[in-house]
Design a protein that fits this description.
alpha+beta, Substrate Binding Domain Of DNAk, Chain A, domain 1, Nucleotidyltransferase, domain 5, six-stranded mixed sheet, globular, ATP-dependent protein folding chaperone, Hsp_70_fam, ATP-binding, nucleotide-binding, ATPase_NBD
Amino acid sequence: MSSCVSYRVKNKRLIDMSTSSKLLVAAIDFGTTYSGYAFSFKHEYETDPLKVCSNNWAAGSRSLVSLKTPTCVLFDKDKVFDSFGYEAEDKYSELAEEEEHQEWYFFRRFKMSLFNKEKRLSEDVKIKSTDGKEMTAIHVFSAAIKFLRGHLLDTLEKRATGVRETDIQWVLTVPAIWDDAAKQFMRVAAEKAGIAREQLLIALEPEAASLYCKHLPVERLQAEGGAQGFVAFSKGSKYLVLDCGGGTVDITVHEVQVDLTLKELYKASGGAWGGTQVDEAYKQLLIKIVGAPTMIKFANVHTADHVDMYREFETKKRAITGDTKGKVTIKIPISLVEMFEEDTDEDIKDSIENTKFSGKINWVGDKCRITAEIFKGLFEAASNNIVAHVTDLLKKHEISNTNNIIMVGGFSESPILQHIIKQAFPHMRVIIPPEAGLAVLKGAVLFGHKPATISSRVAKFTYGVATTMNFNPNIHPPEKKKKYGNQIKCIDIFSKHVEKGQQLKVNEAQSENTYNPVEDEQTSMCFQVYTSTELNPAYVTDEGCEKIGEMEVAMPDTSGGRNRSVMCEMIFGGTELEVKATIKRNGQVTKAKFNFLGSPGKSSS
């Protein structure tokens, strides 16, 4: 039964998770466009926190070497995992060239499927491959994480480190703006990939990046023009972390405390304004010239060329600056031009002449020359959203006197985006640390060694559970009236545990509410957990309330009838919602699992 009676207990308890005891911390940064892993040993962290090892990935078709690999997964016709990253891209391209790819499943840039606000997330949710075939998302995500986990373990074995898997603290990164269901989905995927629950931490991407910046020497955090240098982690410093990735832009604001831990000043926010929006703008530009049918056919017939075309564009995104004038030259596979001209009997030059790009784009062979103005315009949709959001944030009283912006994430390596941010906020010191694209990954390793460096976060919502109380006709609406045996109760009461905007100390049980069963023979207590956008919701059915999951506590001993109290502690300070339940009459403690994925659970652990 989900209904129960409650009263509040005031004291708070501390949960110790200040420092990892594991020999090695390994972090997986699972990005929208690129992924990678990094690790460091405990003894090396204690002497040099920045001594973090990462992998070099090779792209066979272009002889590229990078510190991350594309987030692409390939499965065969039986849905058996085949390859990941550059290897998956190259193999699928080869299959397509031989026209043998039709029954294979190729997924790329699928992480954002967890940011779908329209669809309730569950373990049964399906996502589509690049050619529209479906597979369960959990299978795709877990296969990708399993590959990265296995690759890391192989690396450790080749180095003869002697580290056993039980010696590893794993860390998986997620955007701070994701909801609890998406975070749990990633945890479930990691467990299915072979990572033990008790060895896994979830790190919020902008927080991880902030920790990385903490350990950088001052001289490596120079602002534009080499001005003074910003002591990122002196006591009282306030700064906004602008984490611009491939899919999402995550923003958090931190203040350094006396003990040099970090306090979040305002709830994490952001949106789907990452670098993939620029890629989409580029795609739409090409469609205006060659047409959608040709672009679709090109992707299917000349898959390798299609992949190389976007790799080339990725390079240009990081090379062109805000000061670039004249025209930008981009190499585009000749096969696209040939296909267009063959299918339409039209010359590519004539096609351009008939568009608004006449005189602004020249396309000859495999070289397309675009005016710098048009190229920079590809960044407009993403950058406008980012600038507007940061502008609104800086008006919040909670973050007044914040004068520093630290740009991290792969998209932040774009000189054009850097230029736009500096122009939009001339009164702010804008700092781009070296290897901004690796800040999240390396910071996640640091977080794994010492999670308690983030000492306080801000509640995004009001949290509570659905409960009951004695029905009062003078207060409660008649539709909330329900009979349990000889008791008349008001159902759907919002029993508040945490209030929106409340500062949540890490490792501290924020509130302890005690609940009782409503029926004598009740053998379990099922708590339905809700969030609300309001400060003080009365009922869980009020506008702004959303059920985010359930937890269940087994109570097989019914001898106490309704006088069996369960004390519920909610610990919100970490990156995930943790819950502990204590049956008062026997002191039995259970850690109740939250189920955010839409399917009710029946077990406690």
